[in-house]
Amino acid sequence: MKKADIQRFFEILRTENPEPKGELNYTNPYTLLVAVALSAQATDIGVNKATEKLFKIVKTPQDMLKLGEDGLKDHIKTIGLYNTKAKNVMAAAEMLVRDYGGKVPEDRDELVKLPGVGRKTANVVLNIAFGHETIAVDTHLFRVSNRTGLAPGATPEAVEAKLEKVIPPEFRRHAHHWLILHGRYICKARKPSCPVCPVRDVCGFKDKTEY
DNA sequence: CTCCCGATAT
DNA sequence: ATATCAGGAG
Fold first, then answer.
1. A80-CA/B8-C1' distance, Å
2. What CATH code is carried by the domain that includes residue A120?
3. What mean pLDDT comes out for the span A127-139?
4. DSSP string over A10-43
5. How far, in Å, are A41, A186, A193 from residue A36 at the CA level?
6. In Å, what is the separation between the CA of A201 and the C1' of B4?
7. What's a Pfam family this protein contains (predicted)?
8. Which residue of A61, A101, A170, A211 could cross-link A93, Cys pair, CB 3.0 to 4.6 Å?
């Protein structure tokens, strides 16, 4: 995508949604970390449904250890991949208490050491909980970046690197949320709403009228 | 690359 | 009936 079009792309998204917010519910850096870890291959709505009760009981990794793996499973059985997620969340809680004083580290290399936390989840926590200008490339950003021609890449890592190069500094802070929301409601995987897309004029997607 | 894996949209 | 959903680990 041309530099001028990229500028327009984000100006349009910013105009429509000046302060974009994610749709995963959380109360602090730890619950954000848990919510994002649970959200792999699942919808926000499904995760929020489970965490609504969970986060009334659990606010810290210490709370999570008290609840226990079976107790956690009871809360998240409606979420896909719940077995491995429960195991990872418990192991991460142990590590947070033992090695980090129960605090979520503000460092990607440290975050990625936690079981069930990969680069994408770490980047979300750094961006949303700590205000870093990191761009977490999830399924939506990967699809939108490639489809529109904003930042094509074969892997999420490649797309992330390209996004950091092409997105003007003024848009980096909110780029993740703008793109994820655009991907969820307009530039959808199955049936993109190109006819009503606000950025269709600067989009490189071939069949713009497909629906 | 495969496995994990329930809920929802199409 | 099947594709997809705020991915990560082996």
1. 12
2. 1.10.340.30
3. 98
4. HHHHHHH-SS---SS--SSHHHHHHHHHHTTTS-
5. 11, 22, 26
6. 40
7. HHH
8. A61
Q: Give the residue from A79, A102, A129 where a domain finishes.
A: A129
CB of A24 within 8 A of CB of A54? Answer: no
Q: Are A110 and A100 in contact (CB under 8 A)?
A: yes
Q: State whether the beta carbon of A140 lies below 7 angstroms from any atom of strand C.
A: yes
Assess whether A59 and A114 both reside in one domain. yes
| Token representation of residue A143 | 């699809």
- pTM, two decimals, is 0.95
Q: Say whether A107 is catalytic.
A: no
Among residues A93, A114, A129, which one ends one of the domains? A129
pLDDT of residue A114: 98
Strand C, nucleotides < 7 Å from a protein CB: these are: 3-9
**What CA–CA distance (Å, rounded) separates A129 from A55?**
16
Query: Is A203 annotated to bind ligand?
Result: yes
Is position A201 annotated as part of the catalytic site? no
Mean pLDDT of chain A: 96
A187 marked as part of a ligand binding site? yes
